[in-house]
Amino acid sequence: MNPIIFLIDDDESFLRSMERRLFAYGMNVRSFRSATEFLFAYSPDMEGVILTDLQMPGMSGFDLQDELNRRNASISLVFISGKGDIPTSVRAMKAGADSFLTKMIDTATLLETINKAIQSGSKRRRMAESRKNILEQIQSLSKRELQVVLGLLRGQSNREIADGISLAERTVKYHRTMLSRRYSIKTPVEIARMVWSAGLDETHIEKMISDRQQQNPVDEDLD
């Protein structure tokens, strides 16, 4: 899918002028007269850059940014405003904007900013997809496997994990071996990195174990 520049501005003359400017450099452009109109067309698989005005009737640029953050959108967002100040630009960048430009921006800087934002968006999508895959792997673990993972996160030895969940030490070793074979993770550090890269911590693993226990109160193995 070719990246698209999504222009959002209530100023019709600016919108058409920017369209022509970007079309001249071979860019794929779609224009919207409001943030609300854009959101009606939005889908999570969009690739490209949102180039949006800050002050607009109804939903402002910041409102749009907040909504995209709520949806965990990975698409890049660049503000382009008629006037900007340091506090406003800082707020935009802290909330995840890729850049903050003024409408008097020169073409070379505009194109450079757009290309960098496209690259950043692609990187975020790859990271989000990787995080999703790892999360699905962890969610597929059994209660016992999760208990072993939790013990390793806490720095416990095989014996300590076994004593804590009333298992034989060899059973804990078995689960560790299966985890290693399935996900190519051998050390507690690698397991911790896997958990953290999915956006999880010990509390989340504890919750998963509790959920498994409620779904199946009978122990999965007896020794």
How would you summarize this macromolecular structure in one to three sentences?
This protein is 57% helix and 11% strand. The N and C termini lie far apart (53 Å). The protein has helices at 12-23, 35-41, 61-70, 86-94, 107-139, 143-153, 158-164, 169-183, 188-197, 202-215, and strands at 4-8, 29-32, 48-52, 76-81, 99-102.
Give your account of this protein's structure:
There is one protein chain. It contains ten helices and five strands. It is α/β, with parallel strands linked by helices and 223 residues long. The chain folds into two domains: 4-129, Response regulator (Rossmann fold, 3-Layer(aba) Sandwich); 141-215, Arc Repressor Mutant, subunit A, CATH 1.10.10. A five-stranded parallel beta sheet has the order 2-1-3-4-5, with helices on both faces. The longest helix has 33 residues, at 107-139.
